[in-house]
């Protein structure tokens, strides 16, 4: 797991540094898409906790080499690690089992492919909202940038990155599994992650804390209530993640 964490960190840091100068304008002058956001959820689903830790560490390294390292990098670490961790925990519980993925999605009739795809898209939205709230709230708390200014950009980037990353997952998962380095093979669990009351509560906290926190934060704007109110969403996301 330590080696896989280091490899993931190196891969993500390299992508961060190499792709930092490049972005795709979604709304010219208003919203641009950072290409590196296609990697976090995919790495989390493939590599599990090792992938999540590697993403956080890789983001710190990327900040260092691009001159962006600051106190806000702590929240950048949390946000990127969460993208991977929530992708791993939610997909492992609500998506098809890794060994069944090929049969469930690629070799199944078209009608049977809908549920896994919709599940992936929904997880992409929940993970994006939760991670955007964590980073935007942290940057606002530190006085770096107002929540409303950055929250929309972050959420849009994370959602698009997670969804486009699904195509990358389809390309990589068979090859990575053949190498024997997916999380389920390395961790060698007796039973796959379940959907018990604890997992359902954690999922609810993450979803409500992320989505509601993002929506309320946008509405509050520069209000003095933003820090404590959205802070509740921040805590809900972290607590829910611990329960998953």
**How far from one another are the termini?**
19 Å
Radius of gyration from the CA trace? Answer: 17 Å
Largest sheet: 2 strands, antiparallel
Task: Please give the count of helices.
Answer: 9
User: What is the general shape?
Assistant: globular
Our estimate of the beta-strand percent is under 5%
Structural class: mainly alpha
Average pLDDT: 89
The parts where pLDDT drops under 50 for at least 5 residues are: none
Structure description:
This protein is mainly alpha-helical and 244 residues long. Helix 2 crosses helix 6 (147-178). The chain is 73% helix and 4% strand. Strand 1 (23-27) and strand 2 (31-34) form a beta hairpin. The mean pLDDT is 89. The chain has one domain (2-15, 36-243). The chain contains nine helices and two strands; from the N terminus they run αββαααααααα. Strands 1-2 form a two-stranded antiparallel ribbon. It starts with a helix and ends with a helix.
């Amino acid at each position: 797991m330590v080696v896989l964490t280091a490899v993931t960190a190196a891969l993500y840091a390299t992508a961060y540094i190499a792709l930092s100068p490049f972005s795709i304008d979604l709304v010219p002058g208003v919203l641009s898409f950072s290409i590196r956001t296609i990697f976090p959820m995919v790495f989390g689903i493939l590599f599990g906790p090792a992938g999540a830790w590697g993403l956080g560490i890789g983001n710190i390294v990327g900040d260092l080499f691009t001159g962006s390292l600051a106190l806000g990098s702590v929240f950048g670490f949390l946000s990127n690690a969460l993208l991977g961790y929530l992708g791993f925990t939610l997909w492992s519980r609500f998506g098809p089992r890794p060994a069944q993925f090929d049969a469930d999605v690629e070799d199944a009739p078209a009608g049977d492919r809908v549920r896994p795809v919709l599940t992936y898209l929904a997880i992409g939205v929940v993970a994006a909202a939760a991670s955007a709230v964590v980073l935007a709230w942290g940057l606002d708390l530190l006085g770096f940038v107002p929540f409303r200014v950055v929250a929309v950009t972050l959420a849009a980037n994370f959602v698009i990155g997670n969804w486009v990353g699904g195509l990358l997952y389809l390309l990589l998962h068979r090859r990575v599994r053949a190498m024997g380095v997916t999380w389920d093979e390395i961790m060698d669990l007796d039973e796959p992650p379940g959907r018990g009351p604890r997992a359902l509560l954690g999922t609810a906290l993450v979803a409500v804390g992320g989505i509601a926190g993002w929506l309320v934060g946008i509405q509050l704007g520069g209000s003095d209530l933003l820090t404590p109110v959205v802070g509740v969403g921040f805590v809900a996301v972290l607590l829910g993640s611990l329960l998953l």
